[in-house]
Amino acid sequence: MAAAGPATRAAPPTGIPPVGTYPASPGYSPYAYGPSPLVTDRRRQVERMKWALLLALIGSLIYWIPFFLNIVGFVLFIVAAILAILGRKAFGSAHSRNVILSVVVFIVGVIIAVGGAVVAGFTAVFSIGPSPTQAQFAAAVRDGLTNGLIVASIGTMVYLVSAVLFTYALQKKPGRIVLWIGYAVALGVELVILLVILPSIPGIADHAASVVFSGGQYDPTKIGRAFDVPTSPLSLLSVVPALLFAAANYLAWSRINKGEIPPSLTPPGIPAGMGAPSPPAPPINPI
After folding, report:
1. What's the pLDDT tens digit per position in 81-90?
2. Is residue 134 part of a domain?
3. What is the dihedral of CA 124, 125, 128, 132, to 10 degrees?
4. Which domain holds residue 236?
5. Is the model's pTM score more than 0.85?
6. Does residue 76 belong to any structural domain of this protein?
């Protein structure tokens, strides 16, 4: 008589899962990980802020150079401001507020500097009249240059505040010290320019008048040549605050690049940049 073999377990009816198994719902992965919308948006804001700081850094390095490069630097500041506005919220309310204030102060300063200089120039032109004397022309030039230089310096002092506000909340103590030193040096440069150039303006005006009246009478076609003077070497002093502000932008960018800021939203135990795990699918009771 043959020995009985080991008992075999009957297979469950077709379509009914074995007891203790929980099949996944169609198209659903029970333990799928992925970045949540909040994490994705935050990551995008961080990248925008990093680019904003890099553009501001480059703009700081070239903005002090006359003519074409300072125009390029100005454009870089505008693009950096837009990116900073779009990426500011990931870094907290203090930085978000400072970015908006920085942009507002920058715009106000530029309006004062550029608008004031333009108004001073037009006022001088209109005061000359169609047939001025040499003394009247020299006086108009002197007043226009003096008023334009003073207003432009005031506007510059105003918009330099924006360079401090732009990264202030992102900095540690060393970075904030660099910002304040840069601002103080920039103010000193503006004051030196005023103290040195203002006394020389009457001489510049007299020279311009002598060129325009070189033929014995007023010749407006010579006005452009009358102001064809070399750039003052004092403008080279602006490289010092430019380097300091560029360094401050780098310090802030470095903190972001190292992951020091902003604080992570990722729960402990979850891979960086990933959201919380999806909950497992509910069990399906066998029929």
Report:
1. 999 999 999 9
2. yes
3. 130
4. 97-257
5. no
6. no
In-domain check, residue 50: no
Residues in the chain: 287
* Domain total in the chain: 1
pLDDT, tens digit, 9 for 90 and up, residues 235-256: 788 899 999 999 999 999 999 9
